[in-house]
Amino acid sequence: MTTGEKRAVLGLAGVYGFRMLGLFLILPVFALFAEKLPGATPFLTGLAVGIYGLTQAVLQIPFGLLSDRIGRKPVIFGGLLLFALGSVIAASAQDVWLVILGRAVQGSGAIAAVVMALAADLTREENRTKAMASIGITIGASFMVAMMAGPVLGRLIGVSGIFWLTAVLALLGIAVVALVVPTPTRSSVHRDAETVPAMFGRVLRDPDLLRLDFGIFCLHLILTALFLAVPVVLRDLGLKPLQHASLYLPVMLGSIAAMVPFIILAERRGLMKQVFLGAVTSLALAQFALGVLSQQFWGFVAALALFFTAFNLLEATLPSLVSKVAPVDAKGTAMGVYSTSQFSGAFVGGVFGGWIHQHFGLAAVFQAGAVVGVIWLLVASGMRKPGRYTSRLVNLGSMGREVATDLVERLRAVPGVIEAVVVADEGVAYLKVDRDRLDDLALDEIVARPA
Hints:
about 450 residues; mainly alpha; three-stranded antiparallel beta sheet; 3 strands
């Protein structure tokens, strides 16, 4: 990457990380805090935790499309201001209803798609995948930091203080975008990174993509519901809220270490489907065990470790599967629908988990999650075995439509090229290739002399 590209990616990764950290920090502490809020019930607590997902799901694609018209940075500034406003509302809340409103406003600052589009504007095609992966890593890192920092901050500054902190992080994000992230000379539509409305039909008709969308919906439904119950169970088992961080640290680090061999098996040995289905099975089993062992400390901790191993493995493999399965020129659209499904799952998980807790008790939240996991396993079992495919973007320069049509045929004839789409107006070839069979020399020869 050039210096400018590195600056753009680091800046945008920081903004993305600040925002996700602000959303995640309350997960490990809010269920305990809400017990003291006037008007709070388990159902309303779940609504407060999950409602950001509703506004996020509704607005993220429209905001991305808006940024194509008025520019990336104005939309990002507006989204971060909304996020800060929501944080201030929640920080000032004296009852659960204002917290719900604040969380809804937080979610309305839906800039994830716009951040990715700006990253695409500021990076060359050959570095695009690397840039997107670097920004995406901040989601997992933010989640881990939030699990450890949330209980500590909850003790030091309280949950209202956490909301004030998230407002400050949002304003810091505005400063980073204004002062660190370069302004692109022009913004264009990038099919690998953005939602293209004309591609919705192709994406929504693909059964394997729909299975993956359903999967991320279920995963974040289960996760959000889980955090309505886990902090309360840990407290009832004798662990003080401040000590929750000391439990989450080894559990999270251990789960990451445990998942690495499975990632290697999936990617290098071509066992993606088997590993994926095994992780879904483990997730369902962990949920069942959490319900059964909710009154036994070490058993509950072991089940929690199994859950996070499966969760981290699925969180890593699902986007990879979407990339492998999606049409090569509709990957951005496929990821847009996938992200909408993810946030929708967070909303339903909050409402569903809160309702289950209120009517059937804490253990039932985990058992309901196990049922969702089994349903997901049944749906996922019908997926086709994914190939060991990867995407490539090649900048070819401007060309006529006839040249583009001829070039597509030549590219498709290269051994190992699974899909090839050339967009003449963009001067870009979108390729899906089989890494094991690709003839790099033949591909390089065509790229060097496209006409």
